[in-house]
Backbone:
């Protein structure tokens, strides 16, 4: 559904960079610096290839010490960037606090638009998760204790994973213990007429087809939609939409957080969002 707004106003409601103009000079460099520390100090295996494309790599960061016999409970994280920016190495920071609390973190890399389509990215994420599940033993991952989380475009992609038939990969119908979308997009049609579509190249039909809100939810695990209280209006609407269209969604509206500061809720082991994911994994 495209809101009844001018194109200029609709574009403003999706322009997070303009709403939080200094995040690339403040938050992103800090995350990148902390990510580099994780990449230099964490246990696990980096740049594991799950597909043929250049960016088809996943990092699996594990706690120090011997893994449990069944493997570590694992959070799989999908980064954002409107499907067209950033890279997995920027988000290794997510692993630090989870590792310290006995949880492994897998961060998925994927091809960006316009080199591929959103459907192409979704297919890569599906392949990466299936690879992690099938190779869990060698990666010290407990495939019975996997949770998903993603931010922004990554929030869309993990919601998409709730609509897939995982049994075609030889996996259970519900292979996750919990899925958490952070500042996710569940209705892609509003992106068609605005500047973002220069790279995404969505038609109206494809935008609707790739919108989790209009697809049947197959995976039967807890699903949460977290959004910042200070986010742009459309992100608050998007979160309310998935709550309306899917049964049993837990909505978290985190006061005083914008589209970028909300990510820090995953890096702090004293946050409720962090505790919720750890509780599901344990």
Residues:
């Amino acid at each position: 559904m495209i809101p009844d707004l001018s194109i200029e106003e609709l574009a403003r409601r999706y322009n997070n960079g303009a709403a939080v103009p200094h995040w690339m000079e403040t938050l992103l460099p800090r995350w990148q610096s902390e990510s580099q520390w994780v990449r230099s100090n964490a246990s696990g295996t980096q740049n594991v290839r799950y597909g043929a494309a250049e960016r088809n790599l996943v990092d699996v960061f594990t706690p120090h010490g011997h893994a449990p016999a069944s493997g570590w409970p694992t959070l799989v994280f999908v980064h954002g960037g409107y499907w067209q920016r950033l890279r997995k190495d920027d988000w290794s920071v997510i692993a630090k606090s989870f590792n310290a609390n006995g949880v492994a973190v897998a961060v998925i890399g994927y091809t960006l638009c316009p080199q591929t389509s959103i459907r192409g990215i979704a297919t890569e994420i599906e392949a990466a998760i299936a690879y992690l599940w099938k190779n869990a033993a060698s990666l010290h991952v407990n495939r019975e204790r996997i949770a998903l989380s993603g931010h922004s475009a990554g929030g869309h992609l993990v919601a998409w994973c709730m609509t897939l038939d995982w049994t075609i990969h030889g996996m259970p119908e519900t292979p996750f213990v919990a899925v958490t979308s952070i500042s996710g997009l569940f209705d892609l049609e509003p992106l068609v007429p605005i500047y973002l579509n220069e790279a995404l190249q969505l038609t109206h039909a494809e935008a609707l087809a790739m919108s989790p809100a209009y697809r049947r939810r197959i995976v039967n695990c807890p699903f949460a939609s977290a959004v910042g209280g200070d986010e742009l209006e459309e992100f608050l609407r998007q979160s309310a939409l998935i709550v309306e269209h899917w049964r049993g969604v837990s909505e978290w509206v985190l006061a005083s957080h914008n589209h970028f500061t909300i990510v820090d809720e995953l890096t702090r082991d004293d946050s409720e969002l962090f505790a919720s994911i750890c509780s599901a994994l344990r």
Q: What stands out?
A: The CA atoms of residues 122 and 157 lie 6 Å apart.
